[in-house]
Design brief:
- The strands form two sheets. A five-stranded mixed beta sheet has the order 2-8-7-4-5, with no helix packed on it.
- Helices cover 0% and strands 71% of the residues.
- It contains no helices and eight strands.
- By secondary structure, it is mainly beta.
- The chain has one domain: Macroglobulin (MG2) domain (Immunoglobulin-like, Sandwich), CATH 2.60.40.
- Strand 7 and strand 8 form a beta hairpin.
Length: 84
């Protein structure tokens, strides 16, 4: 499983993650605030192929965040973003 990007980089209420998966699996996204505390966790079942996962970010406060993506226990990618 490969995480291509997060759009838009300057997040308002909705954001999208583009995923390329060679097989079905479980994607875990952990959003951390600037102090390293978990602000949000998203778990999604991903099908084989390329897809976009819609993320509701309305419950996050304005500020800087890091989103860490995992496939099961395997770390995939870290993406930084700013919530308006």
């Amino acid at each position: 499983m490969h995480i291509q990007n997060l759009q838009p980089g300057l997040v308002d209420n909705l954001s999208y993650v583009t995923i390329l998966a060679d097989k079905t699996g479980k994607l875990i996204l952990k959003v951390l605030d600037i102090d390293g505390r978990i602000a949000k966790t998203v778990v999604a079942n991903i099908n084989e192929g390329r897809q976009q996962l819609e993320l509701n970010m309305a419950d996050l406060h304005s500020g800087r965040y890091v989103m860490n993506a995992f496939s099961g226990d395997t770390f995939l990618k870290s993406i930084r973003f700013v919530k308006q």
